[in-house]
Amino acid sequence: MKIHEYQAKEIFARYGIAVPKGSVVTTAQEARQATATLGGKAVLKAQVHAGGRGKAGGVKVVRTAAEAERTARSLLGTNLVTHQTDARGVPVRSLLVEELADIKQELYLAITIDRGFRGPVMLASAGGGMEIEEVAASRPQDIHTEPIEPVLGLMPYQTRRVIARLKLAPPLHRPAAQLMTALYRIFTECDCSLVEINPLIVTADDRLVALDGKLDLEGDALFRHADLRELRDRAQEDPLEAEAVDEGIAYVKLDGQVGCLVNGAGLAMATLDVTNAAGAPPANFLDVGGGADDEKVSKAVSIILSDPAVNRVLVNVFGGILRCDVAARGIVLAYQRRGATLPLVVRMLGTNVEEGKKTLRESGLNVTFADTLGEVAQAISRAG
Ligand code: GDP
Ligand code: MN
Questions:
Q1: CATH code, domain with 49
Q2: Which terminus of the chain has fewer CB atoms gathered within 10 Å of its CB, N or C?
Q3: Do 202 and 208 form a contact (C-beta atoms < 8 A)?
């Protein structure tokens, strides 16, 4: 789950990481007042769940309170399109109004899970700021990677190594070590999949300040963070994905046309490979899970059918905890409720498979059955 920059900075501050003074506003009038409070100069930052705001015009320096009001009016209520969003962008409903920083240097510091290392790594670069992706692409050696053994935590020799790589001046060594330790505590205690400060600045008076903040929370750990769950902003999420989250369905929107209903994440990924190989790219990843009843299956099919890009549906269900007859009833329910007619390719195996197939056969829906993945591939390319 993503949260806003201002929320990440509130967490940073609680752990002793310095952030600029500022406040969140939702109207142009409030932006004017907040800027006046800061002495008439400020930076206005669109609060959206996407990076790349600076380059997309979502971060604006203003030099008077009146300019703040005008700028806020031009940002609030619009959609911000950055290189990390789709063409529709994400809605700007609030702005962070912050005191201007006097920047001497922009650094990059983050902790994330590295799949190769199978654990957390700290990433650091002296070349932080808006060009970090360019640095990563053209000069990867300029980004230091420090793997952290979860059993040991971030060790002092590691923070010293990172500090050496960042070439920080000696007076900054101790504050930098404290900041890295705090960042790792945030990462573990909040169950983050990513915590990132870009830029982490060295100010003209030699302090380290988190000028930006990004924090992604691991969805599977949110059950033990009632306070962090509250930070969810549904307006920033893809509507179909948000609906799926509410229903406890693992759903990721993709670019193709084949709507996929699968139980089990591994089978779902294999299914995506099969449709892709058949030249029919999937419209989504969807794992309806093992414990689904017919209502939940129906909800999942309904989410698939409400995607306008979908022109056929592939069901690949291995009946175990989710029985085939239950899956079939859920599918028929969703099609009938929506009056849908899209062709269905169904591969069903396992518990109550005959009953499930019977339900589908008698439903009057346009169903093709396939038993092997090879048959699935053939049927799905024909169905388009
Ligand atoms: P992002 O583009 O979404 O990552 O947004 P950031 O919060 O990182 O802001 C983008 C850039 O705006 C930063 O890299 C800074 O160079 C610049 N910026 C942000 N706040 C200030 C500020 O207070 N003063 C100055 N001079 N620049 C700022
Ligand atoms: Mn940034």
A1: 3.30.1490.20
A2: C
A3: yes
- Active-site choice (5, 69, 108, 251): 108
pLDDT for 290 equals: 77
One domain for residues 13 and 42: no
Mutate to test the pocket of ligand 1, among 12, 130, 134 (most ligand atoms within 8 A of CB): 130
The CATH number that applies at residue 113 is 3.30.470.20
Q: Is 108 a catalytic residue?
A: yes
- Helix extents (H) in 204-247: 226-229, 239-247
Regions of the chain where pLDDT drops below 70: none
> Is residue 196 annotated as a catalytic residue, yes or no?
yes
pTM exceeding the 0.90 threshold for the entire prediction: no
Residues 262 and 361 in one domain: yes
The per-residue pLDDT for 321 is: 87
Q: Is the C-beta atom of 80 inside 6 A of ligand 1?
A: no
Residue 231, domain extent = 1-20+103-235
Residues 88 and 123 occupy one common structural domain = no
CA distances from 362 to 33, 140, 329, 355, 357 (A): 66, 59, 11, 11, 9
User: Taking Cα atoms as reference points, which of 325, 326, 259, 265 lies closest to residue 292?
Assistant: 326
- C-alpha dist (Å) from residue 373 to 38, 249, 275, 278: 63, 24, 9, 10
Pair 47, 36 in one domain: yes
pLDDT for 238 equals: 87
The residue count for the chain: 384
Q: Name the one residue in this structure whose structure tokens are 């269905």.
A: 344
State residue 384's pLDDT score. 77
Number of other CB atoms surrounding residue 117 within 10 Å:
12
- Report which residue type is found at 296: K
- At residue 349, the pLDDT reads 94
With beta carbons less than 8 A apart as the criterion, state whether 201 and 18 touch: no
Q: 337 to each of 87, 240, 287, 330, how far by Cα in Å?
A: 31, 18, 21, 11
pLDDT at 86: 87
Amino acid 311: pLDDT: 96
Spatial contact of 282 and 258, defined as CB atoms under 8 Å apart: yes
Ligand nearest to the CA of 85: 1
Q: Maximum CA pair distance of the chain?
A: 77
Same domain for 124 and 42: no
pLDDT at 291: 82
Asked if 146 and 271 sit in the same domain, the reply is no
